[in-house]
Each structure stands twice: as structure tokens, then as C-alpha cells.
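[Solved] Which block belongs to which protein?

Original post:
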Amino acid sequence: MKGMVESMASAKEKVEEKKIQLMQLTKEFSQQYLNEEYDCVIEKLISKMARKREVPFVTGKIEIWAAAVIHALGTINFLFDKSSVPYVSVNEITQFFGTKQSTTTQKSKRIRDMFKISYFDSEFSTKTVDQHNPFHNLVTIDGLLVPKNMNLVLNEKVEVKEWELNVAQILGVKELKKGGKFNKSNLYELLKVTDESLKVYYSYLQQHLTFPFSVSIEEEVGPLEWVKYNVNCVRLEQEMEVDEFYGILLECTQESEKIIIPLADIDMDNDTVNSAIITLYQEWFWTYR
């Protein structure tokens, strides 16, 4: 009995020790790149992780968990949107903590899945993001939650476009027909981007994309300063496959380093073998996300 008590005490001390380390690392990052609003949600998330029956951050490299905490909260609070304040790139997070992008994003998704965290989360949104929460003033139309001022717009009848029919065929949506007209809200419900529809599209792309192929991507390295570089796309990402924010992911290499990039963000030349397939996916993702 005494040994069991001592073991429990030791485990509790280890959790507390790791929690302090995690708080310190994330605080250092926040002081350099973020603000007090992020300090609040970071502390709240780490404290909640520490209360889990099996505390995730007691195993593994603490720097990876720190990067994942920032990435998880940044994802739902639009930190990677260049129009947001503050704005931070994923590359800045991984460089600060000395972690790999693929490992960081996978751990981030694990945290978000663990606590079911998504956009405009009532518990982990910063005050600024919560003030712009569109879900505060919603109405239900055909089972779909939308802002009240979109009521008339979403009830408008629209004709289904050719590319939407092509997407419907990929997703197995049989309700859409050429020349048919649908309420915008109904059309959105049928074609919206979800984890399930992304996985169906992932299987389609797995069969139809030709690898490897090269693309150019741009990354912001400073205020109004961009660097463009080439990456070699070797396959669809095999472990995480899809992300609720970024969509379907690509596994690429850049100067022998493995990186993960969203398929929706790459620029394709129109005359390449994959261009039509990828352009169709991107139009669907950005329209129905």
C-alpha cells in the first residue's frame, strides 16, 4: 500500500514537472509572437491536458508538445491567416521549438481531437475571435445553421455547375443532376467539406494523381517579405491524411527534408498531368469549406 501511494505521488510530481516545462516553453513563444489573449487559452488548454487520466505530455519530447499546443490553438483562432493579428506561420513555430512540421501538425490534431476543439470553440477561442463568432446569431435553414441575414440568399434557387456535378460524382452524391436547380443551402449541405467527404476525396485522389510532381510554394519570412521555393510532392500524406482546417495533405521533400503542405494551397501549371484533378479539388475545397 505504501509503495502504491509513493508511486502515485511520483507520477503526480512528474506531471507537475512536465506541466511547468510546457507552460514555460509556450509562455516564451507567446511573449515573442502572441499576446495575453493567447496566454489565457494556452494556460487553460495545458491545465486541461494535465487533468486527463492519462496525461499526454508526460511522454515524448516536451518541445513537440509545446509546438503542438500553439499549433492547435492557432488553428482554431486563425493564427495562420495573414490578415489576422497576431499572425504567425507554421514554420516560425517549428523553428522556435526545433520540431518537424509533420510531427507538430500530427500532435496538434491529436490535441484537437482529444478535446473536440474546432473553430469558434467556446472554451479555447481568444476574446477577439469570440467577438466575431458568427454562431452567436444563427438561424436553422433545412437543418443548416446560417447567419440570419443569409436567410433569403440561401433560399435562392441556383443551377448546378458542371464542376459541381463532377465533384458530386466523386463524392457519390446522386441527388444532383445536370440542369437541376437547388436552394443554395441544400447545395451546400450536399457538397460541404467535412472529414467524411475529405476522406472520400482522398481515396479518389489516391487512385488518380500521378506522383511525383514538383510545385512552387511561397512562404512569408518577414513583413511583406516572401520566399518562393520548389518542393517535390511524393505522395498524399499517409498518417494524418486529412486535416479539418487544411484539408487533404501532401507529403513533399525540400532539400531532402520532409514537409507536409495542404493540397489546396499549391499552384499548378495548367498543362501538367495533374492540373485538372487538383484544380477541381481546390475549387470544391475553397467553395464548400
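(Second protein starts here: sequence line, then its C-alpha cells.)
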Amino acid sequence: MGPNIKTGREDFAEILRLVRPGARVLDVGCEDGELLELLTREKRVDGQGLEISPAGVAACLAKGLAVVQGDGDRDLDHFPSRAFDYAILSKTLQQMREPRHVLSELLRIAEQAIVSVPNFGHWRMRLSLMARGRMPETRALPDPWWSTPNIHLCTLRDFTDLCRELDLRVDACAALSAGQRARPIRPDGMVENWRSETALFLLSRRAEDRSAETPKDLFGEVALPRPEAPAKPRRRRTKA
């Protein structure tokens, strides 16, 4: 990302680094099209947006962006498989009614998914709950409980557990914080579940070998270990 490029979202800068030039991109919940416009201008992507709000759709059209009005919970089912190289869901998964289905659909319609999520396990969240006994309000989750659009908040461990359940591979992961550079992390680690305010994931299907395509110079490759099956007890031989 060039020094003269400015964006109001730290995850947008890292998404720009992840996306290959000229790629086919679907931005789910694209809002006013800020990220899609950035990708189109800087990476010359073949981009399309999906946005539920009429105001957001109008803002995208005013910028000359390709966008359709739709609900990510329901309308991803209508996209053909492997129609895109990347499907992007930026700080929106926790607002979905069916996040498990949405995440699975992202990796049906695209070869890779870029997903950023606020971490409800961050130490500020834990401290606020313990000290105040109320739903936290932080930089990552600034809205009060009665007006927040977030209905399915999760911790990093919750998210990585869901990735395992869906048989997804974490190709790269970084922790993000306002005003700081992205920091490569292992998202299934206990320490990062405390330290990371927001995490950005690059995901693919585990069954597909993407070792040659994974951009190791960005965040580094992170493969989540599978839980080991318990060892079977050995039988003792008895003498006749």
C-alpha cells in the first residue's frame, strides 16, 4: 500500500495487501463502497458488491461500482460456485443471523475468503465485564448493547473452532489495532485470544493445496492443528 493512500479502516489497508491484482472480488456488506473503490483503483480488480441498505447501494452506484442490493444471510446462495477469487466480509460476520452458513457460502462461491472479526475475548472486554458488570464498549465494539448491530459476537477461539468444524484452512492471520501495524499471529493460541482486539483471516478449503499461492510475505502461513484422537489402550497378553 502506497504512502499516499489513506483509509479510515485499518483492516482495509491489509485487505488491499492480500488481494492479487486483477482478481475477481465480491465484497459482502460493502456499505458505501470504500473498500471496493480502493481495490478497483489500486489493484484493478473485477469487483462486485452486495449491500442490504438502499443508501449504501446508491453510494456505490454514484462511485461507478458494480453492486446489487441483497442480504448476505440469504442471497449468497444465488451466486454460482467459484465465481470469484476472493469473497470479503469485513467486520460483518458478527452481524449475520447465520454466521456458520455465511462462512461456508463464502468459500463455496470464492477460492479464498478474507474475513475480519472483532475479538470478544480481548482483555479490554474481559476487564470491562469484570469491573463494570455491563456489556463492554471499546474501540472495536463502540455501540451500546441496545443499539449494536452485532448479534453473534465471538472470541478468536470460537472462530477457529468454527473453521475446524467447516474444514477450513487459515492461510494467514493478523491482529489489528487502531493506529498500529498488522501483527502476524497464531489465532488458536491462548495468549492471542487475550491480546488481539480484531483479527483478519485469509481462509481457504483445507482439502485444496494452496501452498504455492499463499502470500507468505504478508502475515505468514498459519495452519491450525487438528485435535489428536485419543490413543487406544494396549491390551496385555495373558499367559495360558
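Accepted answer:
You had them paired correctly. Confirming on the second one: The mean pLDDT is 83.
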